[in-house]
Specification:
The complex is a heterodimer of chains A (about 200) and B (about 190).
Chain A: H1 13-22, E1 29-32, H2 36-43, E2 50-52, H3 60-70, E3 76-81, H4 82-86, H5 90-98, E4 103-109, E5 112-113, E6 119-120, H6 129-136, E7 141-143, H7 147-157, E8 163-168, H8 182-192
Helix pairs in contact in A: 1-2
Chain B: H1 3-11, H2 22-32, E1 35-40, H3 47-55, E2 60-63, H4 67-79, E3 83-89, H5 90-93, H6 97-104, E4 112-116, H7 126-141, E5 145-149, H8 152-169, E6 173-177, H9 179-182
Parallel strand pairs in B: 1-2, 1-3, 3-4, 4-6, 5-6
Classes of the chains: A alpha/beta (about 200), B alpha/beta (about 190).
Chain lengths: ~200, ~190
């Protein structure tokens, strides 16, 4: 029994990722975390404004925050897993103090390290990640009760932030795999968000 | 006067740039190279630099909870078109090899990493002395550009030119600021 119980529906990461991408109308940047967060973002359709993080577990939200600081007019979305976030909880404190208006953090919580064999995470037992985010000072933090509420929370988040949205998800693996060329991924992303020009 | 000081004069307001404290030189070189974002993990020796960065509206600067976090922020900022440097001490460098090896180096990010060197020249903490020994081998094994700065008269030139090279070649650079430059952390033996 979780210390702070919640009644959120167990959803599917790929389905939610597709719903999220469908809401992006203004060339928002999306930073996909290592592993399944990335894979389902990749399979949701290639966008030049997507960055797929290949290593550096835990740094999805800090990278997204950096992009948000660099481009305050563009909204930036981080897609992160529960295991990865638990590795870098401190970033929530930093962001709560700095209050970037153009940052949304989405966390897929399946209570396990799915990709390494399903070992349990603390969020599957005692740790309520929304309570953690609120405790860090991120007032706009919520569990998505179901798909419709996820859509509503995300649309609201795009209007201003910082916002933290957590979704309980099932144990399904990612639906594909990204390309593995870090330079190409970085370069495409920089072109996608207007930092580099097409030759 | 050596040619290098002519370049300094353009960026310094004081009449004799060689007399500026080390932290003022670093700040001015960051500014001259449009490095506007400086996340850091606090360090006693870097305190005057951190204070000066906070006091200057040109810079966005704030503390992070871990050095890795700052590396992530710097990476995102660069991709978004904003140059950024990170400040840490030697023990903090010991926490970032994975972020360097799996993000900064393979993605070709010109992260500007300033390390306040502890663990040498009068260190009193064995743990600091041990972690200091890991820093240069890590940088060497990743073939990362690094400069240990000991001389005040070389500081501005090294920082200025190395930032320009990092940006031009899309490669990270580490500046190790020796106690010979900063005075380091002093304790009574």
């Amino acid at each position: 029994m979780a210390a702070t119980a919640h009644n959120a529906k167990v959803m599917n990461r790929f389905e939610l990722t597709k719903r999220l991408v469908a809401q992006l109308k203004r060339e928002e940047a999306v930073i996909g975390g290592i592993g399944n967060s990335n894979f389902d973002l990749w399979m949701s359709g290639r966008r030049p404004q997507n960055f797929y993080m290949l290593g550096s577990m835990g740094l999805t939200i800090p990278i997204a925050f950096g992009v948000a600081l660099a481009q305050p007019e563009r909204h930036v979305v981080a897609l992160e897993g529960d295991g990865s976030l638990l590795m870098m909880l401190g970033c929530l404190s930093t962001i709560a103090v700095q209050t970037p208006k153009n940052l949304t953090m989405v966390v897929w919580d399946n209570g396990m390290y799915q990709i390494t064999g399903g070992q349990p995470t603390a969020s599957g037992a005692t740790t309520d990640l929304v309570a953690v985010a609120r405790g860090c000072g991120l007032a706009n933090s919520a569990w998505a009760a179901d798909e419709e509420e996820f859509d509503r929370l995300f649309v609201e988040a795009l209007k201003g932030g910082p916002t933290f949205i957590a979704a309980r998800i099932d144990d399904k693996p990612g639906t594909g795999t990204t390309d593995r060329d870090p330079v190409q991924i970085r370069e495409r992303f920089m072109r996608g968000i207007g930092v580099r020009k097409e030759a | 006067m050596l040619p290098v000081f002519h370049a300094f004069k353009k960026t310094f307001s004081m009449t004799d740039p060689t007399q500026a404290p080390w932290h003022e030189i670093v700040l001015q070189m960051l500014k001259a190279n449009q490095v506007k974002l400086v996340p850091y993990v606090p360090d006693r020796v870097f305190t005057p630099l951190i204070k000066a960065l906070h006091a200057d509206n040109f810079f966005t600067t704030f503390p992070c909870t871990r050095e890795e976090e700052a590396i992530g922020i710097v990476t995102g900022a660069w991709m978004g078109g904003l140059r950024a440097a990170v400040l840490m001490q030697t023990s903090g460098f010991g926490t970032i090899p994975n972020a360097l090896a799996s993000l900064v180096v393979p993605s070709q990010i010109p992260a500007l990493i300033f390390v306040s060197e502890r663990g040498t020249l009068g260190e009193f903490n064995l743990g600091q002395a041990m972690v200091c020994r890991t820093m240069r081998p890590v940088l060497d094994s990743l073939a990362m550009e690094q400069h240990t700065i000991t001389r005040h008269d070389e500081l501005g030139f090294i920082v200025d030119r190395a930032i320009k090279q990092a940006v031009a070649t899309q490669a990270p650079v580490t500046f190790i600021l020796s106690p010979l430059l900063t005075g380091g952390k002093v304790f009574a033996a």
